[in-house]
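Standup notes, structure subgroup. Blocker cleared on the desmosterol input:
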Amino acid sequence: SPDQQPVNAPGLTCRLVCVLPSLLSSDCLTANIVKSHRETCQYRVEELQALRWKVFSREEVLAYQSKSVEEMWQRCAYRLTDSIQYVVEFAKRIDGFLELSQNDQIVLLKGGSLEVVLVRMCRSFNPDNGTVFFEGKYGGTEVFKSLGCNDLIASIFEFSQSLCALHLSEQEVALFTAVVLLNPERAWLQDKEKVARLHSHVDVAFKNTLQRSHRDTVLSKLSQKTLQLKSLCSLHIDRLRSFLELRPLLAHSLFPPLYHELFT
Ligand code: MHQ
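Run returned:
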């Protein structure tokens, strides 16, 4: 019978035996996550870099600085909420995320969406002059002065600066943000085990990718970043609390519903 015939097809044998097994299942996940990132990253990194010459003029910076605290918080909350909507779309496109319970999807997004935005921010950040792409042009920390939380803004900018120093590729940003999002340690998860399984698949995919590009050393540097992200997010919540305590009635009309749902 034909299937009993010995084969002598060295090229084919090599392809099956040597080449195919090097395509690990984690490569599929990497491809899925990189594609999800590319489709939901708001601006392509080349676009952002090409716009670096567009910097706010002194007059434009002064105009931002003379805005009221309320207006500036409202603007930033809208920008942040807009970015978070892209992160929600990113999450939904990661294989396995929509198989989690709705509760756990929400818990992961509530706990991780700002962290992902802050990691993604390094793509919009120019480390040469410490400016970020905000409302159409690049501006430094002085643009955000009227928010009245210079310490938070300075820490966010320092974080971006230090992340830029790692020169992460788009593939690395994609995988790192997925690892950050699928954190099985978030409080109130119903099925922690299921999240942990998904997280470890992404973790393996990330480690394989780093190993293959001889970038293993970024891994330990990124684990420090995870801690910094946590403290930036609690600082954001602290500053938001102080802002709201002074304006209990105003707050509801000021912020977009999704910002409320996530942070207040
Ligand atoms: C853009 C790049 C970008 C630029 C500036 C939420 C609030 C009212 C105050 C980023 C806390 C401040 C903002 C700077 C903080 C959370 C604000 C200040 C995507 C959006 C992003 C990352 C902004 C997000 C919100 C930030 C961090 O391409």
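Discussed briefly. DSSP finds twelve helices and three strands in the chain.
Next: hand off to the docking folks.
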